[in-house]
């Protein structure tokens, strides 16, 4: 009887330890106005955090500690972004998936205009020295697609390596692409297009690319599957890596991302449903994964640190 009890106890301890090892951390604490989609994070020279997200005019939130967030307005208030109406089919400036970058005292913001299921899409660029609502200058069209293209010009992400600028983009169709960007204009420097990742499964559901360099590798994060359906969402975050920003990218099993590869970084767990629409940012405490997810209360901001010590990003 003693040996059986001991065996049962050891099995229980082993099971508990296994659960602890495999458990996925919940998002870090965030408070205030945190109902976002497709968030992107920047920090200005004063240390203030800026969070931009999908919505009419592109929503702006600020924080001093990366925890408490205040909605302060929109990049383009009151439907001011009229140049996007031909792509959105609306007049309220309903704009998607911004990507921000802070340099030389200015905030740069790439953003997309489209409608669900359409390739009539465009990516635009804006800048502001303060970041405040209504202070943003429209720098115009960056790139666009029509149904004659085999990819979709939304979900832009700027990556800078050794002074060279690149923009990844794409959603569904033939997946994620990379274009070279002129650092002076923020616009394409050539018409060349490099394919980085593609899926044929799940209707080709891959989007929201974010390229992040850590050590000797570039990591290509993407969102897979179904977004924007509340607690029915199946969004999840995947990754591959390459020694070159241009690829080829492979997942942890060595499968090329252009052949449907992608190692899971974060999926639904506990009460956290459909994480995706991610951005990856370097803060004082290291690499940060910023994303949206759903709970029974609606959409919410998620922030976790990433640990790359194994050579692959792990949510902590």
Automatic annotation (TrEMBL):
Keyword Transmembrane helix: no
Active site: 38 (proton acceptor), 207 (proton donor)
Enzyme class: hydrolase
Catalyzed reactions: Endohydrolysis of (1->5)-alpha-arabinofuranosidic linkages in (1->5)-arabinans
Keyword terms, alphabetized: Glycosidase, Hydrolase, Signal
CDD domains per UniProt: GH43_Arb43a-like
GO terms for biological process, alphabetical: arabinan catabolic process
EC number(s) per entry: 3.2.1.99
Signal peptide residues on this chain, from the entry's feature table: 1-23
The family this protein is said to belong to: Belongs to the glycosyl hydrolase 43 family.
Protein's UniProt name: Arabinan endo-1,5-alpha-L-arabinosidase
Native species: Ephemerocybe angulata
Highest classification ranks of the organism: Eukaryota, Fungi, Dikarya, Basidiomycota, Agaricomycotina
